[in-house]
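Human:
Class, as today's exercise, you are to examine the entry below, and be ready to discuss the fold:
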Amino acid sequence: MKDYLKAKIEALETNSKTKNIRELCKGINDFKKGYQPRNNRVKDEKGDLVIQNILSRWGKHFSPLINLHVVNNVRQTEIHTENH
């Protein structure tokens, strides 16, 4: 935790010296808010939270999007060009 805070303070100093105001303000706001743990929530088809097997759930979600069925009955049209 000590190394983390030291790195954050160094980033603030660097942003201050380089006049990177956006990142400086962002870093200051992070200090004001304090530590906030993030939750990576994944839901199944019914909307219930999935705690285990998150990777398999993502696989189920993206599988229909990635594995599209190829349409074989595509009608081909002829292109007529005129010779000048």
Notes: The chain has a mean pLDDT of 77. Residues 2-33 form one domain. The longest helix spans residues 2-17. DSSP finds three helices and two strands in the chain.
